[in-house]
Amino acid sequence: QGYAVAVDELEVGLTAAAAPIRNAHGDVIASMSVSGPTFRLDAERVHDVVDMLVAAVAEVSHRLGWGQR
To answer: What is residue 10's predicted lDDT score, i.e. its pLDDT?
Structure first.
């Protein structure tokens, strides 16, 4: 799906989402993550945050040459 979400897995009360950043060859060279208290990141908010996160890593990856021909 292109991202990972952890709700209360790493620590109770913490929600985090992460997605990979790719270089021009498609190699994962970094990642970007967002985290916050679970009580502020309910299912709807996590969905919104993941959408923004995926858009951000796509932009960074694109600037690094991923997906360009």
So the answer is: 85
The count of residues in the chain is 69
Q: Which of 31, 15, 12 is nearest to 23 (CA)?
A: 31
How far apart are the C-alpha atoms of 57 and 21, rounded to whole Å? 6
Bridge partners (DSSP) listed for residue 6: 16
Mean pLDDT by 10 residues, the chain (69 residues): 94 97 97 97 96 98 89
Residue (of 12, 5, 65, 67) closest to 33 by Cα position: 5
* Nearest alpha carbon to residue 7 among 37, 31, 32, 33: 37
CA geometry: angle at 65 spanning 35 and 48, to 5°? 30
